[in-house]
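Thread: NitT/TauT family transport system substrate-binding protein, structure

OP (GT): Posting the sequence first so everyone is looking at the same thing. Length is 337 residues per the record. Can we get the structure tokens written out before standup tomorrow? I want them in the notebook alongside the other entries.
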Amino acid sequence: MTDISRRGALGLLGGAAALPMLGSPAFANTKVTVGALNFTSHAASFVAFERGYFAEAGLDVEFKFFQAAQPMAVAIASGDADYAVTSITGGLISLAEKGATKVIGGALTEEKGIDGQKILVSDAAYQAGVTTPKALDGKKFGITQAGSSFHYMGAKIAQAEGIALEFTPLQKVGAVIGALKSGQIDAWSIVPHIAKPLAGSGAVHIIGNVADYIPNYQVTTVFTSANNAANERAKTEAFLKAFSKGAADFNAALVDKTTGEADAEDMIKLIHKYVYADKPYDKAKPGIVNGAMRINEGAALNTTSVQDQLDWFKSEGLVKDSVTMDMLVDSSYVQTM
């Protein structure tokens, strides 16, 4: 994990959609730890940090970076992180059932007309004739852990195609990438800022789109501890307000492209501090641009998609049948979509 902190950041003015129920925080310089992955899909938090929206809201933010979604959920439950953005996993749902975590908003979403997550296969599988998702029958599909979003996506693809997949847990995204490139696994699904550069290298091939199998998929959510949701309302509302401003800036610059080329370039440079930071800017830029999927305005949540995910986890025996949406989601914060 890597920690990054900006204390006393200057608040900057920015046009953004604000959550209607949120007011000004009654505190200043409150320390908050935000869990994230080094993905373009986490850009709303990065923008809110770099453009001073968190500081403007009275939040002194420190990032903790993780390699997978489920450890992030554990960190929220244990108090090692205050807020985070990640996919719905079996771990997150189980922690919510135990009264430890709450989903408080939506983030990344699959949207018709916006290039989204891709289905990838290794070059070895592709050369052997696996050129469509239907041809994945009996093949090894990489996941981080059982009950991860990768597991959910692979299962929905298999169900739609009437095929069987062998799910291979590899714990970390980096390990999945290595296994796919070396042919140790046959397939995977991932956000486009990772998928497209991998495909461009020739080591893997894109054979389909996740949106064709899971339309309007709520890929990631904003969540926090049940304690923060119940007892730290002003802080939680301030976080959501700043996060939403960051999302609005990101969408305008790179998804809707309404603010001009100069702003888009500034946005890519900002994100580059967190995504592909080990690469020169000109090498990192295409991957960042490719990852520009919609982040929900106002942190709105597609509850229909969340319910579908919850139902799937139950059907697979990965969470208890008794878990309800009310256990998982604190609807007092949520705008639905």
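GT: Both are above now. Quick notes for whoever picks this up: The chain has two domains: 3-109+218-328, 118-212. The chain has a mean pLDDT of 90.
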